Amino acid sequence: MHITDKNTCIEVENVSFRYDGDSVLENVTFSVNAGEYMGIIGPNGGGKTTLLKIILGLLEPTTGTVKIFGNEVGKSKKALLQIGYVPQRISRGDFHFPATVEEIVASGRTARRGLLKWFNKEDKTAIEEAMETTEITGYRNRSMNKLSGGEQQKVFIARALAGEPKILILDEPVVGVDITSQEKFYAFLQKINQQFGLTIIFVSHDIDVIAHQVKSVLCINRELVCHGSPKEFIKEEFMEKLYGKKVKFILHGH
Ligand code: ADP
User: Fold this and answer.
1) To test ligand 1's pocket by mutation, which of 19, 54, 59, 203 has the most ligand atoms within 8 angstroms of CB?
2) Relative to the CA of 53, which ligand 1 atom is closest?
3) Which of 53, 63, 8, 3 is nearest to 31 (CA)?
4) pLDDT tens across 225-250, in order?
5) Does the pLDDT of residue 43 top 80, yes or no?
6) Which domains does the chain have, with CATH numbers?
7) Ligand 1 atom closest to residue 47's alpha carbon, by position in its atom list
């Protein structure tokens, strides 16, 4: 029997997934320690978003299980309350409605509180703290459609943090954010990982970001290609398995 280590926050065991008979994930097994800062990388169509959706309980695996702090996703509501999710920008839609920053952040508290219930003091504190951590308190009354891509990104992170998650999952977080803001964004993620011990997992296409930003890397191309440190990941054998050709990547010190 597999015994959950108390430092393990996510356990994915033998997860396979098929869309209409097409295999997207095959026997994927890995675990994530609490406090880890992990990047997920792999080619387009390799199954990264599908894997995130399974971890979030939005898709049921064809076989296998996912546990969050020992609670099985799909069987325990508790499992999902521990996760804050920041989806890809393209799936968020445009903000033509005049929602303010504060309203968007507060909506991240609803899953915990339940709909149609007034926020209590604890909820209000969590919302304030989420805005402070992401440094957006100054524009709380601004309308969402008046913000830059980088600022909007912080609002979505604040929304996820308002639910006081133990794990933060982000899908392609810097798409549409300019390069200078991208660097600040990763510094910010690193800060909240270290300061609050928050487990952070993000998907990225960018090998350079994966090689320099994270503590561990998960490579997915239908099956788990590797799970280890960035230095292990850039070995030629893994690159070839991921991208199907000989790719050499030289790790520059930053
Ligand atoms: P990635 O995030 O690594 O780009 P995805 O998890 O989005 O990969 O997709 C993995 C595979 O599953 C792709 O081949 C994609 O075409 C297929 N796929 C994704 N969503 C659906 C769907 N709703 N129906 C059928 N096939 C899908």
Assistant:
1) 19
2) 6
3) 8
4) 889 888 887 776 667 766 766 555 55
5) yes
6) 1-82+166-254 (3.40.50.300), 97-163 (no CATH)
7) 6
